[in-house]
């Protein structure tokens, strides 16, 4: 049983306040969808929780099972059980996917995986996400298409097995086939154990494949409405207009 | 190019076997302005006693000859004429030269090894090596510099018609070594030369790889990696002089720097002369500055004197580790030091992959690893 608690989180970028007091609790076993228009601060929330150096926390708390995440370095947060699937995964020249994954798994688990077992897990993970075996030898995200990058993020999610996963617009830019593959990966992760998911999305489309327990509407740097899955249907029908007007 | 600046070609006009044709550098000259002359221990002034010593040993596979010859041997100085004071000093002071010959159409089964081991940093010493690869022969030379010395030398690589020579030069000196060296490759018609410099050791290393062509169709690839630590001055000055039509050159040097007063200098001069139509050239230098207090000077120069080039470009970039790279790796649980190690190894490793002798490639990767562990 794990809990991620975000309390009154305020975040600035270059002296500009972006998040204006976010309160949210994610428990394992539950999936929370955060939906909001572009520029509302969704990625800022994701990056701030993960500890990206560009974002300054001006107030608030983020706790994972009572541990103050904001006091930890980026890698310590990941080792504490937090995972962020990035909206725009960066290309890292000269670092191969297989070397990267092995290093990441070793760091998170605290010991090197048995080579044979790791090779097996990697192969089945890649197969399940329809990632070509040749990707293991390629440089990290280099020359990957948008869809390939997102599938590779989910591969990492499945290999690293965090307590809480924050998925930042993992669905954006995917065609229907890729969306299905990625959603299945997220669902496997959800079924794999006691895990919580914070699913950030702009569109309702992915929610047909990954059913949320809660939906939060994000606008102007905070949550402006919350409810159950039915809230997504309302957004589908009415769009974000009413919230964006309200927040200015 | 500003009107007051001299064209590149005029900077490289001077070449002579006669020491008196070169003034003792003062540090104000374009060619010497980056080099801390006080740390050359007299190599540039000619005042230092020639009491130093290096031991040069060769390991040659079957079919290749290595001989020590006197100063009057006709093969010396045919491909290269000294282009600066230290080079001329070395040319006039070496006692015996090493001449390695790969006969016509010979393809040795293994690489040729030349080991230069310094016997201490008291007193200067000079050397000269000629490597002749005769027409249609193919050879790999691994040149290793180790130990401690105050050493200046000239190396001539003479690559015959249709021949291929690959050279890896490791500057793996002890911390107090001073080394000033010219490596000149002369490419005949359709010759291929691939030079790879690895400079990690030494207090001051100034290596000047240059290329000239004597016929069309020549192809030169000059690569290098360096890792400058606190106090080290590692300088690479490249010159590719395209004077023949339809030749190629590609230059790619990458460096990492860390620690107080770690200093890397990279000068990349490419001249495409009037007669060098159809030249295809590209040069690149990139530096990763890992800490405060380290400095990289990177100056690419391209002078095009013909209207007909197939391609000509250059680029230079020096910067810090990319925060986004480090963030991505750390977000996967990888600690900062390990993330930094992965990124730097990746950055240099992409070039190191090009070294074809597996044993040397692994050694260089391990050396990068050791530098990063400091
Ligand atoms: N580096 C930055 N400098 C200044 N403003 C930024 C920077 N990054 C994001 N912002 C601003 O922060 C706001 C929220 O951005 P973001 O969190 O990316 O929104 P979303 O993910 O919901 O589209 C936007 O108004 C954006 O312009
Ligand atoms: Mg976003």
Give the key terms.
heterodimer; A: 248 residues; alpha/beta; six-stranded mixed β-sheet; four-stranded antiparallel β-sheet; 8 helices; globular; B: 374 residues; mainly beta; 2 domains; 16-stranded mixed β-sheet; 5 helices; 45% strand; binds adenosine-5'-diphosphate; binds magnesium ion
Description:
By secondary structure, chain A is of the alpha/beta class. Helix content of chain A is 36%, strand content 30%. In chain A, helix 5 runs parallel beside helix 6. The longest helix of chain A is centred in the C-terminal third of the chain and has 16 residues. With 374 residues, chain B is mainly beta. Chain B has five helices and 16 strands. Chain B is globular. Chain B starts with 7 loop residues before the first helix and ends with a helix. The structure holds adenosine-5'-diphosphate and magnesium ion. The site of adenosine-5'-diphosphate (ADP) has 13 residues of chain A, from strand 2 and helix 1. Magnesium ion binds next to helix 1 of chain A.
Task: List the topology elements.
The complex is a heterodimer of chains A (248) and B (374).
Chain A lengths: L2 E11 L2 E12 L3 E5 L6 H9 L4 E10 L2 E2 L5 H7 L1 E4 L6 E5 H13 L5 H14 L10 E2 L5 H15 L3 E5 L7 H16 L4 E6 L12 E6 L2 E6 L2 H9 L2 H7 L1
Parallel strand pairs in A: 3-10, 3-11, 6-9, 9-10
Antiparallel strand pairs in A: 1-2, 1-4, 4-5, 7-8, 11-12
Helix pairs in contact in A: 4-5, 5-6
Chain B lengths: L7 H4 L42 E6 L5 E5 L15 H9 L3 E6 L9 E22 L4 E22 L4 E8 L6 E10 L4 E8 L4 E10 L5 E10 L4 E10 L5 E10 L5 E10 L6 E11 L5 E10 L4 E12 L2 H8 L5 H17 L5 H16 L1
Parallel strand pairs in B: 3-4, 4-5, 5-6, 5-7, 6-8, 7-9, 8-10, 9-11, 10-12, 11-13, 12-14, 13-15, 14-16
Antiparallel strand pairs in B: 1-4, 2-3
Bound molecules: adenosine-5'-diphosphate (ADP) and magnesium ion.
